[in-house]
Amino acid sequence: MYEKIHSAGKLKRDWRLWLAITACALILVICILPIIFSANYQRQYHLFQESLADSTLYSRQNNSLTMERDGEIISLDTDGGYHKLLLNLVTAGAGRTGEPPEETAEIIFTFGNGASLELWGVELVGYVDTDAEYGLFLRYTYPDGKIYAYDTAEINMDKALTLLESD
Known about the structure:
single chain, about 170 residues, alpha+beta, 4 helices, 7 strands
């Protein structure tokens, strides 16, 4: 009589339950990782935008924005062409992060606070959502030396130069 009670108290270890729990945990991890990656990607771009805006404000307040192109360094006003270029870059949104080309940047902006923005005209490789053949690669160096770099198909070097030369 007591045998039935003692044997009913023992739990059977069902391997199928543990397999189901493991599968659910694995699916959860697979679903969460892309969300974490995407959030980090957007956070980095947002930090870049904030720092670029801060550097632009610094250069406006101190009249310290310079542009180097073809070995010539000129002082720029933050209004006019630079402002239009900045608006186009922000409107273009985040591009693909990566390493810059090996050659020297075609345009280098320095802000006077230790930050710089370098631009290259690049051939686009691997973009599937655009018909553009050429785009722009940007490398922003934060005042503390940290680097954020990406390319975009939304604007190319010809358009950047046209915007800079306007006004």
